[in-house]
């Protein structure tokens, strides 16, 4: 934590943070989800509040206590996350998409619980793509000069290194900052630590050594804050 020298450099700023992982329902009791714990998003919300910001935390399926002094909006699906983030972004100086939205949803949600067939067969699940919230927020800024931040967990593959993929994703999404985690060595999921590179659209990059998610949160707000136009 920043401790005694913590300043209120975000006082008067309004920020939106999304956290957790969305669920896409197949029927009333089953869903497709992911392993996001929400820890990094909650750390971002707490860090911003401690620096004086007015914080809206859009939380998808997170089992963590509400951070003090933060407005929490609960959502389940990517469509609900999109609506909540777009609506909160309208008055925001910064939007940080730390949530892991499900990329796909079933084309149809069964109203009744899906039952097993006696012949041992299994249903095929048809999926369609969800809207890209970060790209939408970046390309249609509700407030000119708002700072938009995305996250990317990458392993690197035949087409490029973790940083190559991060640079390409930053350009594709149109955000100002992209926080890139290298997850090839193992999971960051549920861990209280994180290690990242913050890539900026202006070409800058900041390496953040392994440390707490709170420490990374403060670096992210430092980078956001220096990009505020006024
Ligand atoms: N994101 C989003 N809406 C989506 C998917 C992702 O806003 N439907 C945001 C995430 O919150 C994150 C950033 O985009 O901040 C990058 O997410 P990622 O899953 O890495 O990007 P994708 O475009 O889904 O690419 P990939 O195929 O690598 O999953
Ligand atoms: Ca994705």
UniProtKB/TrEMBL annotation:
Chemical reaction(s) catalysed: (R)-4'-phosphopantothenate + L-cysteine + CTP = N-[(R)-4-phosphopantothenoyl]-L-cysteine + CMP + diphosphate + H(+); N-[(R)-4-phosphopantothenoyl]-L-cysteine + H(+) = (R)-4'-phosphopantetheine + CO2
Domain DNA/pantothenate metabolism flavoprotein C-terminal positions: 10-225
Region called Phosphopantothenate--cysteine ligase, residue ranges: 15-230
Cofactor or coenzyme needed: Mg(2+); FMN
EC numbers for this chain: 4.1.1.36, 6.3.2.5
Family (UniProt): In the N-terminal section; belongs to the HFCD (homo-oligomeric flavin containing Cys decarboxylase) superfamily. In the C-terminal section; belongs to the PPC synthetase family.
Protein name as annotated: Coenzyme A biosynthesis bifunctional protein CoaBC
Organism: Nocardioides potassii
Portion of the parent chain present: 176 to 405 of 405
